[in-house]
Write a structure and sequence with these properties.
mainly beta, Beta-galactosidase, Chain A, domain 5, 9-stranded antiparallel β-sheet, 5-stranded antiparallel β-sheet, 2 helices, 8% helix
């Protein structure tokens, strides 16, 4: 997963620069989610209302819950590394933010439309837009992502992050189900990923990072059965703005071609692993029922 290895490792900055420039929150009596309008609307914050603790990492413009896509080798370099076409919702590696084109906050909803930045060159990707819709369903955040490509270049097929998910390094244990009996309560897989990228096969289409008491944050990504993951130590500092992070991204392989419109959903919640699994199973069954109608 060489293309996915480097996203999220920007240049060192002052601590103040790591805080959201224009945060906007959506909340109910159970959870709170936040987007940074000063960084393309990347999702930088997710916490229970009580006790409050942000479980996401947003050390730089590559680290949010956010969209990121890969395409043709274009001669660009990230620092001194050969890179390729890579529109990122939050911005570029030198901390240049992506521009929010439109923002709406409704009754229990948020909407953001973004002009992404090329991760390596820092330039606006003028032939792409990214959209996200957020709403809260009790203690679950539902995010709908949309990517529109209006360019003329046909990019080669690549593994695409759908989406990138950056989490507090203090949650070390990756949990998911891999096996032949999904949604039956069969035993879960637990691992502490290393660096660089490792692969996993989440056969129930969800994964979580949890502490040693099995409590943490998880995401359900319908119909996706491939995952890339790592734990980056950085300088060892955990927390929302620490240089250390836990990461995963569900993957699909496809090409960015003229006229492409790609949409997908993500569901995020907090709790112990057994609760996360039951919550995601309920969402899975609801979606299956809707398809059968």
């Amino acid at each position: 997963m060489a293309l996915l290895l480097w996203i999220g490792f920007g240049i060192p900055r002052a601590d103040a620069a790591r805080e959201p420039i224009e945060p906007v929150y959506l909340e109910n009596d159970r959870v709170r989610i936040g987007v940074d309008l000063g960084a393309g609307g990347g999702i930088f914050y997710f916490s229970q209302k009580t006790p409050e603790r942000n479980l996401l990492n947003h050390f730089d413009k590559g680290r949010f819950i956010q969209q990121s896509y890969y395409g043709v080798k274009d001669g660009s370099k990230w620092d001194k590394k050969e890179w390729r076409w890579n529109p990122v919702q939050g911005g570029g590696w030198m901390d240049r933010p992506a521009k929010v084109l439109e923002f709406k906050k409704g009754d229990g909803t948020l909407y953001v439309k973004t002009r992404p930045k090329h991760w390596a060159t820092q330039e606006d990707v003028d032939d792409a837009t990214m959209e996200e819709w957020l709403d809260l369903r009790k203690d679950v955040a539902h995010i709908h992502f949309k990517f529109i490509y209006t360019g003329t270049i046909s990019h080669p097929a690549s593994s695409q992050e759908l989406p990138a998910v950056f989490i507090d390094y203090a949650l070390p244990n990756l949990v998911f189900y891999h096996g032949a009996k999904p949604w039956t309560g069969d035993a879960l897989t637990r691992k502490v990923p290393n660096f660089p990228n490792e692969s996993a096969q989440p056969d129930e289409s969800w994964a979580a990072y949890v502490d040693d008491k099995d409590w943490g944050i998880g995401a359900y990504f319908p119909d996706k059965k491939r995952l890339t993951c790592y734990r980056a130590k950085g300088d060892g500092t955990p927390g929302p703005v620490g240089s250390a992070c836990s990461y995963f991204a569900p993957l699909e392989t496809f090409a960015i071609t003229p006229g492409l419109v790609h949409e997908y959903d993500l569901f995020v919640t907090i709790g112990d692993v057994s609760k996360l699994r039951l919550t995601f199973q309920a969402i899975h069954e609801e979606r299956c029922q809707l398809r059968e109608r």
